[in-house]
Design a protein that fits this description.
Radius of gyration: 23 Å
Helix content: 25-40%
Strand content: 15-25%
Distance between the termini: 38 Å
Number of strands: 20
Number of helices: 13
Strand order of the largest sheet: 4-3-2-5-6-7-19-20
């Protein structure tokens, strides 16, 4: 028999009323431009049978005025605190504040990017309040879960924005140009890390006419690099590979040094370097030294897409541009949020797909099916207890 858990309700409502009262608050971080639910997404959930309430001004930074939410059937509220207290489910982009968690009632389901390997104060508050929590970062990378994969959808946009940002700050054009004044050589772009963000960066740089090279510790991605018209840089690191979820395995210290030595020459002759290397659940690996940046030509640009998780490049700071001997080092911070309209559209679609997958049509409620691989992977707190061993070990470290 399938074991399931349902969101508890404070009191039994009339049968015709929706059981799930979903509240979507504005992000408490004023720098966040994305919204977790678009008006179209709200309409889809209402059609399922949910009651949807959104905080007034929810979509003002991403191009979705309040009137669109009202037209979709959502309720608007300016009383954030009361809405948090009344909700049976809360959907947002980023982790909530501890103060917001304290307003949620026991059994509420929180769905967001929770940053579970670092936000231990929020985890403590969720456990204390007995708020059930889905961490969208923890959704397994399976074929079925692709339509719910928020990390991939946002990384796709970040890779695109990284190239545009670098091109905007570069002291030359990207494509080759043959003009009466002479021929301009194409810019050389080097992408380090060929995941979702890296592949989009390769494709975008190629569309802009650059000469593109790419490197990844996983030899299996070489074919993907070639399919986009880029050159794959080969560096012999010995045995490498990827995890069952498709992430690159962490290198040994010896392998990291071999990687740095192999990349140094390519970086020195590149006009743009974009780093995307991440290790799931850990700080980003430091793979580009300051000396390697200093070896680049003045006017070149380095974009570190991993700056928010520690950075791939020595000296990178999230949200800041640092000048190193004339080379611009840009630390990414919420690059997907720079195209907030589409980022919100994709986030909303992923979230609606997640809710729909676990929707009980008869009871108009979300089932927390613990035997479903997707739910088992991302439901990290249930009934006041942390369920994920990786996160537990990280908190104890």
């Amino acid at each position: 028999m399938l074991k399931t858990t349902k969101i508890p309700n404070a009191a039994r409502r009339q049968e015709e009323e929706p059981l799930m009262h979903l509240f979507v608050p504005k992000e408490h971080d004023s720098r966040e431009t994305r919204t977790a639910l678009t008006p179209d997404g709200a309409a889809q959930l209402i059609k399922l049978g949910a009651e949807v309430t959104v905080e007034a001004g929810l979509g003002e930074k991403s191009g979705f005025p309040d009137a669109l939410y009202e037209n979709a059937g959502a309720r608007l509220t300016s009383d954030r605190n009361a809405a948090l207290q009344a909700a049976s489910a809360v959907l947002q982009v980023c982790k909530p504040s501890v103060a917001d968690v304290a307003l949620m009632k026991e059994g509420t389901l929180l769905i967001c990017l929770l940053e579970p390997f670092t936000s231990f104060d929020v985890l403590d508050a969720l456990e204390k309040q007995k708020v059930n929590a889905v961490s969208l970062e923890m959704i397994p990378r399976t074929t079925l879960a692709q339509k719910m994969d928020v990390l991939s959808s946002q990384a796709n946009l970040a890779g695109y924005v990284a190239v545009l940002t670098a091109a905007n700050r570069l002291s030359q054009v990207l494509p080759m140009m043959m003009t009466p004044a002479g021929t301009l050589k194409p810019a050389r772009v080097f992408i380090i890390g060929v995941g979702v963000a890296g592949l989009q960066a390769i494709a975008t740089a190629k569309r802009l006419g650059a000469r593109v090279e790419a490197f990844d510790t996983r030899p299996a991605v070489e074919e993907q690099v070639h399919s986009l018209g880029a050159k794959f840089v080969k560096i012999d690191l010995g045995e490498t590979g990827q995890t069952k979820d498709g992430y690159a395995k962490e290198l040994t210290e010896e392998q990291k040094e071999l990687q740095k030595a192999g990349m140094a020459k390519v970086i020195a002759q590149s006009d743009i370097v974009i780093t995307t290397a991440q290790v799931f659940g850990k700080s980003a690996p430091r793979i580009v030294s300051r000396a390697m940046v200093e070896a680049m030509k003045p006017g070149s640009v380095v974009v570190d897409l991993a700056a928010e998780t520690g950075g791939n490049v020595e000296g990178a700071q999230a949200g800041a541009e640092v000048n190193i001997n004339g080379v611009r080092l840009i630390g990414a911070e919420n690059f997907a949020g720079r195209v907030a309209g589409h980022a919100s559209q994709m986030f909303s679609s992923n979230s609606v797909n997640f809710i729909t997958h676990f929707w009980d049509k008869e009871n108009k409620d979300i089932h927390l099916n613990l035997e479903d691989e997707i739910m088992d992977g991302c439901l990290i707190i249930l009934n006041g207890a942390l369920r994920n061993e990786m996160i537990r070990k990280a908190r104890q470290a």
